[in-house]
Every structure is written in structure tokens, then in C-alpha cells.
């Protein structure tokens, strides 16, 4: 679990022009941060190594889920396809048009749908693509 690892926490002096200055760092894990965390900051670039104290006054943690988390949780995807046939994309007879039908490969739209569809279809349980 990542919450048990001691990770470096770096403190910077923020400057509006983007030239932020490193103040110091400390090591802590998530559980330590949640429990009124107080730790000495160290800066190995300075003669005086102990540079100050980092105190967490308020702590909020938000879970972030990945696509894999959703998939293992039972998410079912449905692949849907739509094509933009507006005139601004060019006439289908024009080789520069996105709608141009290349006899061996199809249009650029067909190529993109085929490429993406081949990947996403693996996650569609009923294999029906409206």
C-alpha cells in the first residue's frame, strides 16, 4: 500500500515569476500526515541542515480511481460510433476529404474507428456496436 511508504515531502517558497526556492524536505507516510503531522525540515544544500518545521494544519485525501479499477469493479462499456458528415470535411470524391473512400483502406474515419474499435471492443460484453 502506498499509504505506508515514507515519501519525501518538499517545501518550496512560491514566487509569482516561477523562480520558486527550495526550502527543505522531510519524510512521512499518509498515516503520519493525517495525525497532526509535525516534522523538522532539512535542507542538505545549506550549512544549517535543520531549516524549520513543517506542520500540517488541515489534511484532505481524495481517492483517484484508474480505468483498471473501474473494470475490475464490474464496469461494462458500450462502444458507440458517430461520423461527422458536414460539408467542411470535403466531398467524398476528393482525395483530401476525410470522407474519401480509399478502395483498400476505407476513409480516414473508417480507419480511425477500426483502430480504436478493435481496442475498445474487448471491453464491450455484448459486442453490439450501435
TrEMBL record:
<dbReference type="Pfam" id="PF07002">
    <property type="entry name" value="Copine"/>
</dbReference>
<protein>
    <recommendedName>
        <fullName>Copine C-terminal domain-containing protein</fullName>
    </recommendedName>
</protein>
<dbReference type="InterPro" id="IPR010734">
    <property type="entry name" value="Copine_C"/>
</dbReference>
<feature type="domain" description="Copine C-terminal">
    <location>
        <begin position="97"/>
        <end position="130"/>
    </location>
</feature>
<dbReference type="GO" id="GO:0005886">
    <property type="term" value="C:plasma membrane"/>
</dbReference>
<dbReference type="GO" id="GO:0071277">
    <property type="term" value="P:cellular response to calcium ion"/>
</dbReference>
<dbReference type="GO" id="GO:0005544">
    <property type="term" value="F:calcium-dependent phospholipid binding"/>
</dbReference>
<dbReference type="InterPro" id="IPR045052">
    <property type="entry name" value="Copine"/>
</dbReference>
Amino acid at each position: 500500500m502506498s499509504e505506508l511508504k515514507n515519501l519525501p515531502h518538499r517545501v518550496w517558497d512560491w514566487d509569482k515569476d516561477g523562480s520558486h526556492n527550495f526550502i527543505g524536505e522531510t519524510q512521512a507516510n499518509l498515516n503520519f500526515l493525517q495525525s497532526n503531522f509535525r516534522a523538522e525540515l532539512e535542507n542538505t544544500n545549506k550549512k544549517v541542515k535543520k531549516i524549520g518545521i513543517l506542520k500540517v494544519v488541515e489534511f484532505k485525501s481524495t481517492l483517484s480511481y484508474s480505468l483498471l479499477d473501474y473494470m475490475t469493479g464490474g464496469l461494462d462499456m458500450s462502444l458507440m460510433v458517430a461520423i461527422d458528415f458536414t460539408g467542411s470535411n470535403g466531398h467524398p470524391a476528393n482525395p483530401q476529404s476525410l470522407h474519401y473512400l480509399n478502395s483498400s483502406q476505407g476513409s480516414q474515419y473508417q480507419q480511425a474507428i477500426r483502430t480504436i474499435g478493435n481496442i475498445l471492443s474487448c471491453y464491450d460484453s455484448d459486442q453490439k456496436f450501435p
